[in-house]
Amino acid sequence: MKLVLVNLYPTTTLGRYLLSSYVLKAYVEQALADADDLTIDVQNHPAGAPVERIAQAICAAQPTCVGYSCYTWNVNPILKLINTIRERTATLQIVGGPEVSPTMITRTAPTARADYYIIGAGERPLAELLHHLITGQPTDLPSGLTRWQADKLQSTGPAEPITDLSEIPSVYLTDTLERPLYARQQAFIETQRGCRFRCKYCVYHKQNAAISYYPLPRILAELEHLIINAQVQAIRIFDAIFPSDLGRAKEIIRFLIRLRDERHLRLPWLYWEFNHHQVDDEFLQLVSQLKTRPNILNTADTAPLDRPQHYSELLRDYTAINSVGLQSLNPAATRTVSRAPIRPAALLDFLQRARQHNIVLKLDLILGMPRETFDSYFAGLELLLPLLANTDHVLNIHRLQILPGSDLEAICEPNGIVYTSAAPHLVTQTADLSETELKIAGRLTAILFRIVNSPLRAQFFTAWHAADLSLPGLLDELSDRIAEETAGQTLQLFSETGVDDDYWNGPAYEELGSGLIQNILSEISQQVIQPCPGSS
Q1: Mean pLDDT for the chain?
Q2: Would you say 66 and 84 are in contact if contact means Cβ atoms under 8 Å apart?
Q3: What is the biggest distance separating any 2 CA atoms in the chain, rounded to whole angstroms?
Q4: 3-class secondary-structure state, position 52
Q5: N or C: which terminus of the chain carries fewer CB neighbours within 10 A?
């Protein structure tokens, strides 16, 4: 039996592979080590590659089974691949990944049907399914699988989760993941699985009742391999909350500091996530020691360019990128999605301590949360933004997505949430945020994102102070002036369909050139703008 696992990675990523397929390969090869006739190959393709070209590569490998890991960025081409492969061969097709849920399976059935679906963690169900297929035993299907029987879904129930993560071999220490894919490039790693939070918009916690950890010696060995042997440029840690065990997280950071100092080397970029109330001053102090120089403020001495700079010039020398999930400063919104409300005093204290230790943060917010209004969204930004002045922090904003199988999917109707059924499942309106308001908020967010996450940040705050306008008032003024200065041009910013993450993370930097923004901000700073009646 030959299994081909197909990775369709995001076209914008630095890593040209997905970790998931290699973890599956390592686990299955260990679990079915006695199966002499089993071979597993992994193919990596950009999600934007022509489906026909990917299908040809798959068929050329002559597999018995094909497996796909589905995410919001690749599920649409995977669905097309399923049909294309089905037309050419009787190869069994197995679909798994975060995008797979009973809703997704039912919705896509009329146009694309796989042979087997795995909902949740895939290592154990895939190994047991392959064993079932290899032995040909007329037994019931193993747990964790769903398939169509006639026109009805048949599910074998959830698989027993792997809680002892030492069962899963290291893709790096076993060379399951070929070194040319990550050497001197970006590598992905997870130190744990599970999350103690139950945010309704997320599906990560669905299969994990508790947090499980990989053995610490293994994690340290992987880090040393990646840094010393592979000389990677960046390490992205996939944990939901890196310091869920704060003492363990500190031990990992101390190891990195010792490795750097003993080997006299420069550490790669390190990316991890946490909530602002989960860390203490010692953690922040350790993160500060990872920097390559003591006092950094890159926004003060970096020339603005017409491309994203926040992950290159603006964050250089910090080493650690600390992604902090805020999501919303509206208590009603956070309660609706089962998150604890943000306490402004606690957030302010955290940001002040981050400033004292001169560490850089990526502050995450979500546009389109249930119970969030146009006014409350911008009120939250108006509270947060001044705390970014004279820092290199990144303001990271996403449009809300309704992920298949998430708890939020089940409460869309009572919250008036409308979203696109096809991935990436973007919310288009809620009971408290009309379609028109969401489009306007998206446009103003694009302008804010483009300016604040660039060396134009200081000029923005100067103009805001001079204008004496509310934040949406200032952004409206900027929008109007951009429209005036670009009259006759067709800008995506003003498209009727609106703009979202894809625009403000990329095209916005080219479309809204630095020279254009600088001139408008200078004009605003040099004149007094009379607020409209009722503005604050």
Answers
A1: 93
A2: no
A3: 81
A4: helix
A5: C
CA dihedral 273, 242, 186, 26 (to 10 degrees): -140
pLDDT of residue 536: 45
- For 311-329, b/e burial (b = at least 16 CB within 10 A) is bebbbbebbbbbbbbbbbb
Structure tokens at 354: 């981050």
Strand 234-237 with 320-327, pairing: unpaired
| DSSP 8-state class, residue 352 | H
Residue 277 C-alpha from the chain's centroid: 21
At residue 113's C-alpha, the angle toward residues 111 and 118, to 5°, is 135
Tell me which H or E stretch contains 45: strand 39-46
pLDDT digits (tens, 9 = 90+) for 456-499: 999 999 999 999 899 999 999 999 999 999 997 999 999 999 99
User: What's the DSSP call for residue 64?
Assistant: S
CA atoms within 13 A on the CB side of 163: 5
- Cβ-Cβ contacts under 8 Å for 283 (sequence gap 6 or more): 243, 246, 249, 250, 253
Residue 209: CB partners within 8 Å, gap ≥ 6?
A: 161, 194
Q: Dig out the tokens for 32 from the structure.
A: 């079915």
Locus of tokens 């018995």:
64
**What is the spatial distance between Cα 90 and Cα 63, in angstroms, rounded to a whole number?**
10
Q: Would you mind telling me the total number of residues written for the chain in this entry?
A: 536
- Find out whether 153 and 101 touch, Cβ atoms under 8 Å: no
DSSP characters for 124-175?
HHHHHHHHHHHHT--PPPPTTEEEEETTEEEE--PPPP---GGGSPPTTTTT
Kindly report, residue by residue over 270-319, the tens digit of the pLDDT.
Answer: 999 999 999 999 999 999 999 999 999 999 999 999 999 988 899 999 99
Number of helices (H), then strands (E), in the chain: 18, 17
Residues 214-229 have a mean pLDDT of: 98
Question: Per-residue confidence at 423, pLDDT binned at 50, 70, 90?
Answer: confident
**Weakest mean pLDDT among 156-170, 174-188, 215-229:** 156-170
Classify 317 as helix, strand or coil. Answer: coil
User: pTM of this prediction?
Assistant: 0.92
**Residue listed under structure tokens 């309660």:** 335
- By CB atoms closer than 10 A (0-12, 13-18, 19+), residue 492 is middle
Burial of 467 (C-beta count, 10 Å sphere; 0-12/13-18/19+): buried
Residue 253 parent element (H or E): helix 246-263
**Residue 341, both tokens:** 């409300």
> What is the number of other CB atoms lying within 10 angstroms of the CB of residue 52?
11
